[in-house]
Amino acid sequence: MKIEDATQLRAHLFPGPALDKAWDKRCEDLARAVDRLSAINSQDALILLRSSFSAPKVLHLLRCCPSVGHNSLAKFDALLRRSIQPITNSDLSDIQWIQASLPVKDVGLGVRRVSSLALPAFLASAASTLPLQVDILAECANSDNDFLQTYLSDWSTKFGDIPDVLPAKQQFWDRPGVLEDKALVEASVHTAQHQASFLAASSQHSGDWLFALPIASCGVDS
């Protein structure tokens, strides 16, 4: 078996044709889902997209495989953007798409861009398993994790110093990027009306309705 074809628990470990094929399959699955989501109401479609067909569907791949900069990330994100537009009944500009892809508590719709998650997801996974990796590879002559070191350098260049003990929680690695995108969205708000709308969406619990399941018998109808 070629090293680039190696897998563990059905996750590809190295860049190569096998990883490309895995991402192509995820993109095909999402494209099929996007076409079918148009047949149901908007709130149902948004819940399914956010919870089942977007980042959660590929998080295992992002955490196990060095996918930062992979061409399929942009393709996957483009499909997500295409699916959001009919749900919101709007033609999203680039800045509106960035806002939509933010977490709900940060004035977004919670449909995260996988291109923004690839780096923090891999770093969190690598940091949480680092002691195990050291034990397994203790007797290997060349056991340095080149991908981890490269990604740590990339993160540090963007967001600052890295703690001596690498945090295992993905939120630590993800939060600076979220705040950067949120600041970009806020900087694009110019009119008083849009500013008021942004502040209202930023208030606590303002996005709770996005998590309400549309159950007509309980008086919660989409």
Broad structural category: mainly alpha
User: What's the rounded overall pLDDT mean?
Assistant: 87
How much helix is in the residues? 55-70%
Order of helices and strands: EEHHHHHHHHHH
Biggest sheet features: 2 strands, antiparallel
What's the tally of helices?
Answer: 10
Count of the domains: 1
Find the count of extended strands (DSSP E, 2+ residues). 2
Q: Which overall shape is indicated by the principal axes computed on the Cα atoms?
A: globular
> Which percent range describes the beta-strand content?
under 5%
Strand order of the largest sheet: 1-2
Computed Rg = 19 Å
| Span of the ends, CA to CA | 51 Å
Low-confidence stretches: none
Description:
It is a single chain. The chain is mainly α. It has one domain (3-218). It contains ten helices and two strands. A two-stranded antiparallel ribbon has the order 1-2. Strand 1 and strand 2 (11-12) form a beta hairpin. Helix 1 (17-37) packs antiparallel against helix 2 (42-53). The chain is globular. The model has no long low-confidence stretch (mean pLDDT 87).
Question: What is the secondary structure topology, with strand pairs?
Answer:
Blueprint: E1 7-8, E2 11-12, H1 17-37, H2 42-53, H3 55-64, H4 71-88, H5 94-100, H6 114-128, H7 130-136, H8 146-159, H9 170-187, H10 192-202
Antiparallel strand pairs: 1-2
Helix pairs in contact: 1-2, 1-4, 2-3, 2-4, 3-6, 5-9, 6-8, 6-9
